[in-house]
Write a structure and sequence with these properties.
The complex is a heterodimer of chains A (479) and B (431).
Chain A: H1 12-16, H2 18-28, E1 34-35, H3 38-41, E2 58-60, H4 65-78, E3 82-85, E4 102-105, E5 112-116, E6 121-125, H5 130-138, E7 142-143, H6 156-162, H7 169-172, E8 179-185, E9 191-195, H8 206-210, E10 219-226, E11 228-229, E12 234-241, H9 244-256, E13 263-268, H10 269-279, E14 289-296, H11 299-315, E15 320-323, H12 327-338, H13 340-344, E16 349-352, H14 362-375, E17 379-385, E18 393-397, H15 402-421, H16 440-443, H17 446-459
Parallel strand pairs in A: 2-4, 3-4
Antiparallel strand pairs in A: 1-2, 5-6, 6-10, 7-11, 8-9, 8-10, 12-14, 12-15, 13-14, 13-17, 16-18, 17-18
Helix pairs in contact in A: 9-11, 9-14, 10-12, 14-15
Chain B: H1 7-10, H2 13-24, H3 30-33, H4 36-41, H5 48-60, H6 67-74, H7 81-85, H8 92-106, H9 111-123, H10 127-140, H11 144-149, H12 154-162, E1 177-179, E2 187-192, H13 196-200, H14 202-214, E3 217-221, H15 230-233, H16 238-259, E4 263-266, H17 269-275, H18 278-281, H19 289-298, E5 299-301, H20 302-307, E6 320-324, H21 327-332, H22 338-345, E7 349-351, H23 366-369, H24 371-386, E8 392-395, H25 398-405, E9 412-414, H26 415-422
Parallel strand pairs in B: 2-3, 2-4, 4-5, 6-7, 6-8, 8-9
Antiparallel strand pairs in B: 1-3
Helix pairs in contact in B: 2-8, 5-8, 14-26, 16-19
Classes of the chains: A alpha+beta (479), B alpha/beta (431).
Chain lengths: 479, 431
């Protein structure tokens, strides 16, 4: 496919010193923590946004904050770009490297350092997976709330980088609302700590700035997160509709009425078929759209909330209402939903959009999305966090056909512009990465973008941390 | 994933198959999380996604295997946990099979590794040689430490460590014969007696025959059947594996022709995964494709077969069993509920250890060829099992039995030994 998203031109001075740089990095790290031969580098050339690929100069897999610090200090001294990587599950290309960059992978830093149930916090290394945190405290009746669908594999470090969300964020908020503190290495090697175990800290909210900064302000090596007590009970309920529009307007009405369930997830017919084939969750196959609404609390609370939701759903012509009858059924319902993207791989290649729109616009944007994709001669499957308007149209295409790939990318751009024009934004939880970088001008005025870049430059004046991402390549301040 | 193969490359049916597998992968990364080697080592090259990428690069470029790629493929346990996790349906098993054959054909391992592998391939699959080797190992055990210090002999030092302290005498209870059903006949099955299992734990097949015949099932143990071929298959020695497959197919189909067979019952899940794949492995062999498919369709794990017999409920015996699901059972054959339900019905309290999806590190010859990773996985597995405070551990694969037994004092039995006891057989030794 002809690439429409450019990367920064590799620095010749860095490429020329390749051998020396690798020898120096080997000095800074223990054995088994440096990958520098071409064969070994290949698997690191992309993440889950796999249409774009660049072989890095080297990959380091440090085991401690001190080692991260030593590597960053070295790279800043010699002007070498650095691309941080967690589990490499980014759907926006946030972890795709470039030819002159060192990938700093946090996958070896995967220890849970402290669980403080009294204060309801956990402190973990950045390479711990999202789900591992919940699993570590599950027996004591707690969990970590943000639950990206990739939570099985994605790391808390990556979640912080992208300010990730997830199905249950409707009630509990996204990463930034559940993050209490970080240990972070600045590009010059300085180790700083932001926040702590409390909900707020004195001074500027730098933690809020770091969360969602896509690895451009520093590399987070440890995080302290908020733990939440598990509810008394939780129950996902399936609502089937005859049209996507009906399901969309039902969501807007539920939220508009003041009812906030834990999660409202949306699937259209193609997505239902894909997920049912994988998970056998019992999704209705005779509907055009499905909402998975999860309620939680005591039996009485769940009943009361459900009654309200069912009443609203009836007004929107709901066809089927099916409550999960067991923990196993509930688990399958969520397994199907959370595996939706990967399961789509059984049918076709895809790119996944992440636009977020005001709920009042949901039905309109869904309809227009279908029209846009059809106008490119492609198919779309919609599966997303409807409760907070965070849409994920999966544009299905054939990655081995360059023309198809170009059409898919163009359709994606049109959809994201549609979201912005509808009063929404480019990304709800996947981050800008490389994918949406050039659309940032559609989202922000020049002044707004300049201000963000000024903040970025304050942390990394050389513009070497994850440099090809987030901000359009033209119009950046001189490094 | 995007693939880049020429029409000439795709003319090779093995490459064509691998291309199809690669096209399904969307590089989502879910598989990394449940891969034992990634969990331990934290390096994507030691994860399914990394290996898939390495294999893709090697095959696309039509390149001979190189040391870096071989290192990471060798570290794969073939536990297939990734296949349980993969939402996209990537057939990693057949991709890594292809890669192993490609490695065996195009890569020259250092002489010491070739030597060690040849010895393994010439010993383990043959019960009499294996028994002899174990007897010799008992005598040579004091030398283990010394051997492990000599790079050339290190593998043999590891083998001495792994060899059991006592070697049972050759069993008579499962020799080639037709074992008549007791009571009203309900069915007829062939039993794979296997290679390493009858040497290490002859009680397993004895218990199986006793339990099945007691339930009215005639059991055929055919003369000449032997190793299913899995041990050499996982070393990329495809011809040797296919020969083993063809030999067993001929023998079982003969038994089927004589008097019919309802199933070929297998008591080691590693072998079960392999025999269920005979149909695929021999799909390109016109003389055997159909026969192999027939055998694969007949193959059943013992618990899978027993689940269909509707065994009566037994009163609880106040014994807590930690059920360890072998990877070849849960990931390879996707048998997850039957063994636990059978145990519960037979009156045992069943506990499931944490991290049940992670391999114990046995994985065929893995414990011999990758002793460090294997030992770490064993420790982790034993910790999780012991945390459930069981009276006994049950599992369905001889490899796991040997591996876990070497790390804990809690007795470990094959599931079928406990079931045999519950339905009238003798109390298993060691309980």
């Amino acid at each position: 496919m002809p690439e429409t998203i450019g990367f920064l031109k590799p620095r010749q001075a860095v490429l020329d010193r390749r051998r020396e740089i690798i020898a120096d990095l080997a000095e800074l790290l223990p054995e088994g923590c440096l990958i520098s031969d071409e064969r070994g580098l290949k698997p690191f050339e992309t993440d889950a946004f796999l249409a774009y690929r660049r072989l890095p100069l080297a990959v380091v897999l440090p085991e401690t904050t001190d080692q991260v610090s030593a590597v960053l200090k070295y790279c800043s001294r010699y002007g070498i770009p650095v691309v941080p990587r967690g589990a490499g599950t980014s759907l926006s290309g946030g972890a795709i490297p470039q030819e002159d960059a060192i990938v700093v992978g946090l996958s070896k830093m995967s220890r849970i350092l402290d669980v403080d149930l009294f204060n309801r916090t956990a402190t973990v290394e950045a390479g711990v997976t999202n789900l591992n945190i919940s699993e570590a405290v599950s027996a004591e009746g707690f969990f970590y709330a943000p639950d990206p669908s990739s939570q099985l594999a994605c790391t808390i470090g990556g979640n912080i980088g992208m300010n990730s969300g997830g199905a249950h964020c409707l009630k509990y908020g996204v990463t930034t609302n559940n993050l209490l503190g970080v240990k972070m290495v600045l590009f010059d090697g300085t180790v700083i700590e932001l926040g702590g175990k409390g909900l707020d800290a004195a001074g500027y909210d730098l933690l809020g700035l770091v969360c969602g900064s896509e690895g451009q302000l520093g590399i987070v090596t440890e995080a302290t997160v908020r733990l939440i007590a598990k509810p008394e009970g939780a129950r996902p309920v399936l609502f089937g509709f005859a049209s996507s529009e009906a399901a969309g307007s039902c969501v807007a009405d539920i939220i508009g009425s003041g009812i906030i369930p834990v999660a409202i997830e949306f699937m259209d017919r193609p997505a239902i078929e894909i997920c049912e084939a994988f998970a056998h969750a019992g999704y209705p196959l005779d509907v055009e759209a499905l909402l998975i609404v999860e309620v939680e609390g005591s039996e009485a609370e769940m009943e009361a909330m459900l009654r309200g939701i069912i009443e609203i759903a009836r007004r929107h012509g709901v066809i089927t209402v099916k409550e999960s009858q067991s923990a196993l059924e509930a688990a399958l319902i969520w397994k199907g939903r959370k595996s939706a993207f990967g399961a789509t791989g059984r049918v076709a290649d895809y790119i996944c959009m992440d636009g977020t729109v005001p709920l009042s616009q949901l039905s309109h944007v869904l309809r227009r999305t279908g029209e846009i994709v059809a106008s490119y001669g492609l198919r779309v499957a919609n599966v997303f966090h409807a409760g907070d308007g965070n849409m994920h149209p999966l544009i299905l295409y054939n990655i081995n056909d360059p023309k198809d790939a170009a059409r898919a990318e163009a359709a994606g751009n049109d959809i994201l512009k549609l979201c912005v024009d509808a009063g929404g934004c480019l990304t709800g939880e996947h981050g800008v990465g490389i994918e949406k970088r050039d659309l940032m001008r559609h989202q922000y005025s020049k002044n707004d973008l300049d201000q963000q870049m000024a903040v970025r430059a304050a942390f990394d004046p050389q513009w070497l941390l994850n440099p090809s991402k987030v901000f359009p390549l033209e119009g950046r301040p001189a490094a | 994933m995007q693939t880049n193969f020429s029409p000439e490359q795709l003319a090779d049916p093995h490459v064509a198959e691998s291309e199809k597998i690669l096209r399904k992968c969307v590089h989502c990364g879910f598989c990394t999380a449940t891969c034992p080697t990634y969990v331990l080592l934290g390096d994507e090259l030691d994860s399914p996604r990394g290996r898939i990428y390495l294999i893709k690069d090697m095959l696309e470029n039509g390149r001979a295997a190189d040391a870096e790629t071989v290192t990471h493929i060798d570290r794969c346990l073939s536990c297939l946990s990734c296949m349980t996790t993969c939402p996209s349906g990537v057939d990693y098993m057949h991709l890594v099979d292809h890669a192993r054959v490609h490695i065996e054909k195009t890569y020259k391992r250092p002489l010491k590794d070739r030597f060690a592998r040849s010895v393994i391939a010439a010993t383990l699959p043959y019960p009499s040689r294996f028994r002899l080797a174990l007897r010799a190992a008992r005598l040579a055990r004091p030398l283990a430490g010394l051997l492990k210090r000599v790079p050339w002999l290190r593998t043999f030092g590891v083998m001495l460590d792994l060899a059991p302290r006592a070697v049972p005498t050759a069993s008579d209870g499962a020799r080639a014969a037709v074992y008549a059903a007791k009571g009203t006949p309900r069915g007829r099955v062939a039993l794979l007696t296997g290679c390493a299992q009858p040497v290490l734990r002859p009680e397993i097949n004895e218990a199986t025959i006793r339990l099945l015949t007691g339930q009215g099932i005639e059991v055929v143990v055919s003369a000449g059947e032997g190793c299913c071929g899995a041990l050499v298959h996982h070393m990329g020695r495809e011809e040797q594996a296919l020969d083993a497959a063809r030999r067993n197919i001929d023998i079982w189909l003969k038994a089927a022709e004589e008097d019919g067979l309802d199933a070929i019952v297998i008591t080691a899940s590693g072998c079960g995964t392999m025999i269920k794949d005979y149909g695929h492995m021999l799909r390109l062999d016109p003389a055997y494709a159909e026969k192999a498919a027939k055998v694969s369709a007949l193959a059943k794990d013992i618990t899978e077969y027993l689940a269909g017999l509707d065994l009566p409920e037994r009163v609880p015996r106040g014994l807590t069993v930690a059920y360890h699901s072998a990877c070849s059972m849960q990931h390879g054959q996707k048998i997850t509920l039957a063994p636990k339900q059978l145990l519960k019905r037979a009156g045992f309290a069943v506990r499931e250890p944490a991290e049940g999806h992670l391999c114990c590190g046995s994985a065929g010859t893995y414990s011999i060829l990758q002793p460090e990773i294997s030992a770490k996985l064993k420790d982790r597995k034993v910790r999780n099992i012991e945390a459930t405070k069981p009276n006994v551990i049950a599992t369905g694969n001889i490899g796991c039995i040997t591996q876990i037994a070497s790390g804990t004092a809690i007795p470990i039995l094959h599931t079928v030994e406990l079931l045999d006891w519950a339905y009238g057989g003798p109390k298993p030794a060691g309980l």
